[in-house]
Amino acid sequence: MQAPELTNTQALIDRYYTEEKAKKAQALTRASLNLQLDANDLAMLSTIAKRFGKSRDDLAKDVLSHALIDLLTQLEPGERKLIARDADEMGNSMAREIAEENGIKDIEHKPNVWSGHERTIAKAEKKRAKELEDARKVSKAEQKSANLAEEAQASSTVESTGFDSSAFQEDTDAAIENSDTAQSEDETLEAVAADTDSSATESSDTGSTDMDSSAEAEVETTSNNTDSSAFA
Hints:
The chain is mainly α. It is 84% helix and 0% strand. The protein has five helices and no strands. Helix 2 packs across helix 3 (56-74) and helix 4 packs antiparallel against helix 5. The longest helix is centred in the C-terminal third of the chain and has 119 residues, at 113-231. The radius of gyration is 62 Å and the shape is rod-shaped.
């Protein structure tokens, strides 16, 4: 006869039994560790455990487990590998001792846990180193491109300045040439004006001389005629 199907509440009770059995079996694989903590540290541990509804021991186990991984991460690569190997060997030995103390043949134990953590850490470090190297190469390439662009801009500025200087020199030479031409023209005009003034002066002097000679001749003629009349 088929057993009646369990309700959700009945299934919940079965799950509780399974969890309890697992906890008992797990307890047989654990060793005790007695700690003496500072009052402040114990107070913080208790407060956080209470906040999240966990026991102080459970929280302490979780914190210690993660803290050990952090400590392993900070070790030097060569030493870290050796320590992980030694911890795995010691873990296998301690698991057998725990099984013997609890009167069981064998316990569930994961081998090479710390060696696995060490490999994961090493991969993360290699990935981070590669990312840094790639970033360095990109930065170097960008700097090289920036330097080339700066050199090209500087060269373009020099060429532009040279062109402007040539154009300025050409303009200066043209201005000087135009100034010389204008000066030469002014000197020519002055020379022509001087020649014109000289010719006019000479002509005026000649005219004055001729007039004086004519006046003297007329005076002399008049005088002679007067003298002749008087003599007669």
